[in-house]
Design goal:
Radius of gyration: 37 Å
Largest sheet: 8 strands, antiparallel, barrel
Number of strands: 11
Low-confidence stretches: 41-103, 161-198, 402-413
Distance between the termini: 108 Å
Structural class: alpha+beta
Helix content: 25-40%
Order of helices and strands: HHHHHHHHEEHHHHHHHEEEHEEEEEE
Number of helices: 16
Strand content: 15-25%
Shape: elongated
């Protein structure tokens, strides 16, 4: 058997030798052809080549290895400096100097990048099944297509030239959004313009999201075979409807789609909210609202969210607990009682504040409907309030009694008058917002008793107090 195997191997030896020689000859021909296709680099141009050829980590691995890539440099017919530099760079230089997938010398890589770009668009549109199929197809064509795609996106962003904003800066000082052509640059604020006269402003994370929205936005129906009726309504009419809603409803509408979000960012909507909410005693005087708008660079939505304001469409409630020792008939039995009581603060736009201290017999469900200036209840006080930054000052808190004068029915903003008292109370609280824009927390800083005749102020010690948390009440009127 060994002798037969040796004879068979000697018989096949000439074929193997001939195949090896043919393969070597083919390799030499390919190598000589590749060297002729690549011109000799110019010494002066080669020194400038690194400024155009980026060694970024986004470079596709398939283009970073010239020995394994079939990408070649096509000679340019225009003898400019850019083409000379491109000719002096390695084989993958054409990928770096290109801004479109069609300019790739490798048809496979160009096609893979185009498919990958289509997959990204499908993913952004919510068509995940189609996006997965396109991603798979792109990676089958080129394993490093994601790097090539991100490189092309980076190159296109760097080569994009920003359009200067031309306008009259004196028409609205420090303004972020104005009418046609009147725009001033504001840090950390993105101005997104539509075809209407108004400008839409957003800041922070929302600005980055809105910046990626396409120019032509429409309402997309849940069923693509059916049209969306909102697309028939003009944007001006939709804005008129949104201006009659409250902030919560506007934000709920904005969460529907990108078109709704853009409409909800219109300055006219939030301008009305700002001018209605920020009035004395929310601010020191009526002219202070101009300083607030200037501080936020005319971004009314950001001003409404971030500038402190007391909520008038509900009540602030503090739930307090303490433990009290009970009475027992036996020495070995200790009875402990958990006592719960509530503090209520309700603010009105005319500067009136209602304060109520109620025990556990009066639950919030029974107190909130009757918490009005006409309430007759033990622990009920009426006073005035003023907001200074985040500090809330409540003063002239007097006990409401049966001798109170009835309010004037012809004027709903006239506070109810109470007979003079020898003592009254005052509170200082700190206003906080958790999360941002809610302004739903009040912490007690001080509680004092004031002798009206002598002017003596005596601090009152509060042992078991807790912060006030806001609770919205639908039946309460908000900002008026």
């Amino acid at each position: 058997m060994a002798a037969q195997a040796q004879v068979h191997e000697e018989a096949e030896l000439p074929d193997l030798v001939r195949f090896r020689e043919e393969w070597k000859e083919e390799v030499r021909q390919r190598r000589s052809t590749s060297q002729r296709a690549q011109p000799e680099p110019d010494s002066q141009t080669h020194r400038h080549a690194p400024s155009l050829v980026d060694t970024s980590p986004f470079l596709p691995a398939s283009t970073a290895a010239p020995a394994r890539s079939n990408i070649q440099v096509r000679p340019s017919s225009q003898p400019d400096s850019h083409s000379r530099v491109a000719a002096s760079t390695p084989k993958y230089a054409s990928v770096h100097t290109s801004n479109a997938p069609d300019s790739y010398d490798s048809p496979t890589l160009a096609r893979a990048v185009g498919i990958y770009r289509s997959a990204v668009q499908h993913e952004q549109d919510g068509l995940l099944d189609e996006a997965i199929k396109l991603y798979s197809q792109a990676f089958r064509l080129e394993p490093n297509v994601d790097r090539a795609y991100f490189w092309e996106e980076r190159r296109s962003q760097q080569s994009a030239t920003p359009v200067p904003l031309v306008g009259d800066p004196g028409s609205l000082p420090n303004a972020t959004c104005t009418g046609k052509g009147n725009v001033s640059a504001v840090p950390n604020t993105t101005i997104v313009s539509t075809e209407t006269e108004e400008k839409h402003c957003a800041s922070g994370v929302l600005a980055k999201v809105v910046a990626n929205f396409p120019a032509d936005l429409v309402f997309t129906p849940e069923d693509e075979r059916k049209g969306a009726a909102l697309n028939v309504i003009p944007d001006e009419l939709l804005l008129h409807i949104l201006r009659s809603l409250d902030t919560t409803t506007v934000e709920q509408f904005a969460a529907v789609c990108r078109k709704a979000r853009m409409l909800s960012l219109d300055s006219s909507i939030w301008r009305d909210f700002v001018y209605v909410a920020y009035k004395p005693p929310q601010i020191p005087d009526a002219d202070s609202v101009k300083a607030i708008i200037k501080r936020f660079n005319a971004n009314y939505r950001q001003a409404y969210i971030e500038h402190p304001r007391l909520r008038l469409d509900g009540v602030y409630i503090a739930v307090c607990h303490y433990v009290r020792r009970g009475v027992s008939d036996y020495a070995w039995v200790n009875n402990m009682h958990l006592i719960t009581y509530h503090r209520y603060l309700r603010f009105f736009a005319d500067g009136t504040v209602l304060s109520l201290l109620a025990n556990e017999e009066h639950t919030p469900q029974s107190v909130i409907p009757v918490l009005k200036p006409s309430l007759q209840m033990k622990g009920f006080y009426v006073g005035s309030w003023q907001l200074d930054g985040i500090v809330v000052r409540i003063f002239n808190l007097v006990r409401a009694s049966a001798g109170a004068l009835p309010p004037d029915p012809s004027n709903h903003h006239t506070p109810q008058e109470y007979p003079p008292s020898r003592y009254h109370f005052q509170m200082t609280l700190a206003l906080h917002s958790k999360p941002l824009g809610r302004w739903n927390k009040l912490e007690i800083l001080s509680y004092e008793s004031v002798n009206v005749d002598e002017g003596e102020v005596v601090p009152c010690v509060l042992k078991h107090e807790r912060p006030f948390w806001f609770s919205k009440v639908k039946s309460y009127a908000g900002y008026q």
